[in-house]
Fold this sequence. Notes:
By secondary structure, the chain is α+β, with helices and mostly antiparallel strands. It has ten helices and 14 strands. A five-stranded antiparallel sheet has the order 2-3-4-7-5, with helices on one face. The longest helix is centred in the middle third of the chain and has 23 residues, at 204-226. 38% of the residues are buried.
Amino acid sequence: MAQHSLREADLIAFDHAAAGHEGVLSDASGALVIKPCTAAEVAFYEASAAHPDFAAYMPTFMGTLSLSSQSDPTAATIKTSNPGPARGKKIDTGLSIVLENIAAGFSKPNVLDIKLGARLWDEDANLEKRQRLDKVASETTSKSLGFRIAGMKTWQGNTASGSNGVDKDGYRNYDKMYGRRFTADNVREAFEEFLFVENAGITRAVGITLVRRLLQEIKALENVVAGQESRMVSASILYVYEGDCKALAEALDEERRLGTGKHHSKIGGNGNEDEEDDDEDEDTRLKVDAVKLIDFAHAWWTPGLGPDENSLQGIRSVARILQDFVE
């Protein structure tokens, strides 16, 4: 089983987060994300092994890492072939979780973070925090739709770097305040902005192909979450697609040529050798897109309490908006 040793001195800032907390790092290869976390988030990942359908929508969990500011930082050995489920103030617990980087393997990943839930606080939150987050929800689409756009970034093409609010790498970044301006009546505009990037060759026709794929995934995700007994407060749907139109076309062509699907064909599998070989093959394939659930700092498995309707409201709203694009 392959193992990697990570040291703090070898880590670099992660540059493909569309939202979330400060302090997110990556290894030099870009394959891993090292994110400050809580013990509850680690426990949720570890327990997900008993929920394989749900785990298929989580980033692969590699382990944990204790970071140190000392000259000899703690190193962590992580098993990179383990099966398993993967910006605000920095979470300062001294503990980080090591996950697969969902954006790895894309040439120019376009990234969308959709924060789920009308209720954004858990039972441990004090009154001030509850009132503050309720105000945020009431002033955004969180309350009306059960989700809001937490952030996104889109690649604008080879010639766009450094102009019109585009960064040096050619990306336009949309922070959390961008998503807070929308209402239930116009939030569709954010999806249009993200999915149709004409400057980079992502035409409306190409974007509709992506919409159909994403809609299929969101409906599958709805079925999975509806079949689980869990609670996720302020978890997100992370959607990534290939923003380079040539690389995207090549990935779609390869998918058609190989007859490969992207919709979790191994859910409920028995973990045999053939499935492991399939996983290795998938690692070498060109990527079209990916959908995952992320951010489980306030998440628990809750046997006997039924499905997470707070998160399901947002998932269903996203599905309705996507459906409007293809009707």
